[in-house]
Design a protein that fits this description.
By secondary structure, the chain is an all-alpha fold. The chain is 68% helix and 0% strand. The protein has one domain.
Length: 272
């Protein structure tokens, strides 16, 4: 009988409490090889050796298949847990990116405010210089100076209104883009988290079903063994059952040598 990598895996009594009473003394685990190579004491009129061996091989094959399935489920559960951990790390990176974006937006607003203040201070300095120049040119330039001041005032107001509008538009556009990005990231995370949670729940259900089936198999094996094994204190029979004596065909003197009482001598059965 060929062995696989999982043949040497063991089933501990902690995993299968029903097997704790069936394991030999000094053994704490049970493998498919233990089941396949299990031997029993020899007694007259015992069980059919071929049937017992076939049943043990069938049980060993089933246990090995369950071990394969358990190993596959454990590997799948480990993979899903690693993916979930990676997603959690990605979530932390996304949150850090959002915080960085908010900080950049705050810096942009502060820079825009400083630029506006600088432009205002420059415009005020220019106005003061032109006023001083106009005052120096005396009365003849007062009319031209007043017209020029009026023109500069209109230009300043238009420019200021344009800058304020541009600043307002940029702020709205940045806030809208930030809100859309945040909404998209939240939705993507929620969908992925729900998918991974569903897959993890399915794997846990499959593992619970496997444990239930495995325990049911061990329960049936324990009941079958308890039902067919003789009690330790029962004495061995000295004669064959009546049904066997009636059904046995008479043997000639050349086939069997009779012992005392006319009964054929008991022959010890051996198993290879």
């Amino acid at each position: 009988m060929t062995t696989s990598p999982l043949t040497e895996q063991t089933v501990t009594p902690a995993e299968t409490p029903l097997l704790s009473g069936l394991l030999p003394q000094g053994h704490e685990a049970l493998t498919p090889l233990d089941i396949t190579h299990q031997t029993f004491g020899r007694r007259a009129l015992g069980y059919d050796r071929g049937a017992v061996r076939a049943f043990l091989e069938r049980v060993a094959g089933r246990v090995e298949a369950l071990l394969h399935e358990r190993q596959a489920l454990r590997e799948r559960l480990s993979t899903l847990e690693r993916e979930l951990e990676e997603r959690r790390q990605s979530e932390d990176e996304i949150r850090r990116a959002v915080v960085a974006a908010e900080r950049i937006g705050h810096d942009l607003r502060e820079n825009a405010a400083r630029q506006c203040e600088l432009m205002l201070s420059q415009a005020q300095a220019e106005c003061e210089a032109r006023q001083q120049a106009a005052e120096a040119r005396l009365a003849e330039l007062e009319a031209a100076h007043a017209a020029r001041m009026h023109e500069l005032e209109l230009s300043y107001r238009d420019r200021l209104a344009e800058l304020e509008q541009r600043h307002h538009d940029l702020t709205l556009e940045r806030d809208r883009a930030h809100a859309e990005r945040t909404t998209y990231l939240d939705r993507a995370y929620s969908e992925r988290h729900a998918d991974l949670s569903a897959r993890l729940s399915a794997v846990r259900n499959e593992y619970a079903q496997f444990v239930s089936q495995y325990r049911a198999l061990m329960q049936s094996f324990s009941e079958l063994s308890a039902r067919h094994l003789p009690a330790p204190d029962d004495a061995l029979p000295t004669t064959a059952p009546v049904t066997i004596l009636h059904e046995t065909a008479p043997l000639g003197s050349e086939d069997v040598r009779r012992g005392e009482g006319g009964r054929p001598p008991l022959v010890e059965q051996t198993f290879a």
